[in-house]
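Hi support team,

I've been running sequence recovery on a batch of backbones for a student project. Most finish fine, but this one hangs at about 90% for roughly twenty minutes before it completes. I'm not sure whether the input is malformed or the queue is just slow. I've pasted the structure tokens below so you can try to reproduce it. Let me know if you need the job ID as well.

Thanks,
M.K.
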């Protein structure tokens, strides 16, 4: 299992936004892992970010404050390879 404790997945419409989001979130102390979009959801630019649910509120506020566009937020259940959509923009 890759990053089993990272239970949130954020997808983006462009690689530019994904890279910018990664830099911003790391700068405010939110640990993220850039990974390819899983084939189970197969949408977006091909790159997404994984992070922990405890960081979700701060992550979304940070991205909003810096006008970084994301596509969809998923709850990740790694054991079953299931992704439940929580929000979309």
């Amino acid at each position: 299992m890759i990053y089993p404790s990272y239970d949130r997945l954020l997808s983006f419409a462009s690689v530019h936004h994904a890279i910018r989001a990664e830099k911003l979130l790391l700068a405010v102390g939110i640990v993220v892992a850039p990974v390819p979009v899983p084939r189970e959801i197969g949408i977006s630019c091909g790159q997404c970010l994984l992070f922990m649910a405890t960081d979700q509120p701060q992550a979304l506020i940070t991205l909003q404050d810096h006008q970084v566009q994301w596509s969809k937020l998923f709850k990740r259940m790694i054991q079953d390879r299931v992704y439940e959509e929580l929000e979309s923009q």
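--
Follow-up from support: It reproduced on our side and the slowdown came from queue contention, not your input. DSSP finds two helices and five strands in the chain. No action needed from you.
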